[in-house]
Each structure stands twice: as C-alpha cells, then as structure tokens.
Model the fold of this input.
Amino acid sequence: MTFDPKTNRFPYPEETDKHYLEVHKNRGIVFDEHYPYVDQSKSFCFKQGFVRFILNILVFPLCRIRMGLKVVGKDNLKKYREVLKNGTVSVANHVHMWDYIAILSAIRPFRAHHLSWAPNVNGENGTLIRMVGGIPIPERSIAGTKAYIKAVRGLLDDGGWLHIYAEGSMWEYYAPIRPFKRGSAHFAVDCNKPIVPLGFSYREPGWFRKTVFHQIAKFTLTIGEPMYPDMSLPVKERETELTIRCHEAICRLCGIDPKQNLYPPLFSDSKRVDYYTTSYGIGYKGSH
Done:
C-alpha cells in the first residue's frame, strides 16, 4: 500500500456515504422536471466557456501546486481516444475539495460533467459547481429524477463524459476505498458505455509542504484503462459485476490489494471502520 496519511483532522461520519461539510446557504432552486440538468443554452455555454478559460490559465496550475499533483496513465486517454469520445463514465475515490478540478485537468482535451449532491448545487458554491459541469441529483421529485436520468442518458449518447463519485461523499485524505454505490455502473450498462477508473493515492510531503503549508499529503492521480459491461450477464448482475470490478480496479490504482482493503466493494448501509483511531476532528468551519 502507498503512503497513508492516517489523519484525524476531519470528522469522518459513521456511515461511509455521508457528508460532513455543512452547506450554509439554500438558494431555493427546485430540481424538478423543468430544471436544465445539462444546460445547453447559449448564455450558459458562453459563461461556461469563460470559466474553462480561467481554469486552463490559472486554476489548473494552482491545483497542481496546491495538491502536489502527479498524473499517471494519461497515455490511456490517447490509446482509447476513439472509444472514449463516443461517451464515457468515470469513477474515482473522493478525497479532496479540489480533486474534481484535478480530474478535469488530467483528462484534457476531454470535458466532463459530474453528478453532484443537490444541496451543494443549491448552496453558496452552486454556481461554480454548475460552471464546471455539475449535475444535481434530485432528492424529492420523481418527475425531476426522470428528467435528470433522461438528461444524463442524452449526455452519454451524444459522446459526453460523465464523472461519478461512487463512494457517495468526500472524505479528505482518506486512504481506504469506501464501498461503491451502483449509479455509475447503472449508467454505463444502460447506455452501453465504458467506465474509466481513476484512483487518488498519496505521497508523503517534504519538509517545506509540511511546515509552511501544513499539508498532510501530496496526491497522485492514476488513470486506468476503460472497463466494459459484461453483456453476457442479466442487467442487474451486469451492474453489480461492473461495480465490483471498478472498485477492485481503483484499489489497485491506489496501490491497495482489493482483498486487503478495509471495505467490501458494494455499499449496503456500510459503516466506518476505525482502523487507526476512534477520535476525529471538526473539519472545516461549520462541520460537526
């Protein structure tokens, strides 16, 4: 296994899919059947284009410096370019506030959308989340859920890239790979698209980063090869089998033997395993 920060700075919840950062604002947006989950209006695309310009010239370089980011396996994007440009799902462990920015930087020239927790899109950072491709997941609207699924299917059928955090939430600097929910495999199977596994692992920071920036670890993002649904299996078994393979692949990309990982591959009301401490910090301001 690679370097494990084993930090107790953050308040990892008991349930492995739960969030611990508070959202301090509710903008009152209703995610129903009328909401533009994949907004293709001219005004939105213009704003998004400007944000992408800022990302390329300023934010991506800052991200690499801030995270100490190293990208491995980018040649897989070139090798499978013809396949990926026809529509792709990607999955990664969610371990830093900037890890999606790191993914956007690493997969260029591909551009991604990502599924996002609805309160985040409705919160103080919601506009920025939308500008970098965030798609809110409706929580209380059946009609909204149908519209969101239709929009995601359309995105993939049109050759788009959809990123999903299958663990369900962000746990900063957490090394074990938490159990995966099946949403990523569902869309891959439903639209017959490959899944690209992406793994964030850690490197021990040097004296300067530890002392000046109080940095817990540096990050390595490893890009795996596309994985395809097993079309010989029934649909539900196909989703389950693909979810398990993706979980095992990301374990390996992070330097973890899947058999030695603390958690099983499939989420089932899974609980946190206290493998190094039972005491956790308070995280960012507003966290419990």
